[in-house]
Specification:
Number of domains: 2
Strand content: 15-25%
CATH topology of the largest domain: Rossmann fold
Number of strands: 21
Shape: globular
Distance between the termini: 29 Å
CATH superfamily of the largest domain: P-loop containing nucleotide triphosphate hydrolases
Strand order of the largest sheet: 10-9-11-12-20-19-18-15-16
CATH architecture of the largest domain: 3-Layer(aba) Sandwich
Low-confidence stretches: 278-312, 562-592, 597-602
Largest sheet: 9 strands, mixed
Oligomer: single chain
Radius of gyration: 25 Å
Length: 602
Amino acid sequence: MKYVLVTGGVVSGLGKGVTASSIGLILKACGLRVTSIKIDPYLNTDAGTMSPFEHGEVFVLDDGGEVDLDLGNYERFLDIKLTRDNNITTGKIYQYVIDKERRGDYLGKTVQVVPHITDAIQEWIERAAMIPVDGKEGPADVCVIELGGTIGDIESMPFIEALGQFSYRVGEGNFCLIHVSLVPVLSVVGEQELDENVKAKLSQFCHVPDKNIITLYDVSNIWHVPLLLKDQKAHEAILKVLNLSCASKPELGEWTTRAKLCDSLHQPVRIAMVGKYTGLSDSYLSVLKYYCSFILGCASGEAILRCSIDDILVLSLEALLHASVACSRKLVIDWVLSSDLEEATAKENPDAYKAAWKLLKGADGVLVPGGFGDRGVQGKIMAAKYARENRIPYLGICLGMQIAVIEFARSVLGLQDANSTEFDPNTQSPCVIFMPEGSKTHMGGTMRLGSRRTYFHVTDCKAAKLYGNKSFIDERHRHRYEVNPDMVVQLEDAGLAFVGKDDSGRRMEIIELANHPYYVGVQFHPEFKSRPEKPSALFLGLIAAAGGQLDAILKKKGVIRASMSNGNSTMKSRQYGNGDKTSNWSSLGANAIYTNGNGVHC
């Protein structure tokens, strides 16, 4: 096994995750099998209980692991499926060591950071690196490890020591260090690009050959980052350090085409993302705006970004981007503050109320992502109602599906007090309830998590067609509440079709309105499995419907399905009605590659 370690200096948030993902991609393009590990030095066992404003969004894996968002980058870039063991935290390591101590595995020895914690880190890395993640048997050829945080942080020190020992233990030719750092310049001068003089200075003080110093400058979208590495022959430097040979140049033709296509799109598709926003500083919002315009492939200021949301953000954005590029549309996001749609805002802040409704009414499609808490829920319900009544394409994810069910019960069934017990525990019409197996006393790891199977109970529906007329699908979940199964028949009789259910048939997974251009809600999170080359089926449906392309997409998928099989379904179809610190990073190994992370702010 060969190991590539990516570290960061000066400041956090330089783009180590995108850099690590891009390195993995070009190595994979060289014909190597690649896996990834992310090290997060915080004491939490996992990211499940952390606020997205503390550490970004939570990414959910097939096995239910709640992990750092960078693992989502690894999966999307490399098209792999990682496990919870591919995310190492200080909490996991200390728990592992303490459990061994309680069992008496250390035979009465005094348990210390060195050697017990550092040994545990190395053991975990070796064990996780051997897990197949690409659908093939046997371990990968190369494991890309990203060390979170910044070199010099106190919490990172045990990992630095462990990785230093690890590089010595695996031996020369099996370990390559890549350090991502910031080369700052005054804004009036422009962005720093590393000319030969600057590279010579960095080489002298960092003891890295100047040919191994790579510049990663601002790019129009993150898909260009692997191309920057390839153009500067980063893969050749890495392969040389690892004593590996590449039979051919990395093949990134399809990737290059997609990156360039993203830049050239002009015909817009406007999606209103209706969410619960939180008060953030202007400086944070400016960073968010830059980041979103960066992933959307827009020049500064082109993306219409109003503010931040306390819901699924980056993952939904990337899934929308994958789908919009596949549909040859330029994605424009309008952030709609859900509470601004409510009647209370009309009285307290009429301008905000009018602006929010103007954005919603000007959108080609509406997305209500997942989230927690009751603030802004009424505004989300009003957005779902507007999309349903005005035949605007709508996609509700997790809470967004529950919102659609509540709105339908209120507006169509006339149950004015219909609600979720999450928001009103005493409601007489509980459309959404707490799952029986859930825990109300423990937060971490107690939700319904990971990949679960959904069976289509209706074959003649848009969702099934978008998935290629499969009889079942596997998607990732993260929720505590579900549609009340006791109200399903009543809702179905009124025209709300529950086209997808779990294996028991009592847990609702997909809703759809048959007489609507595109009105779909799902309990799972399809954004977790979206890939640049394989957009999420339901996000593709939303963008296609918003751009007037859905019929063509469904027809194309039907043709593809027919060519693969006879297309007959064994399931019964039902018809529904309407309704640097850099002081000690070099101690990790002499064979290092230094990259300028300026501009890769993801």
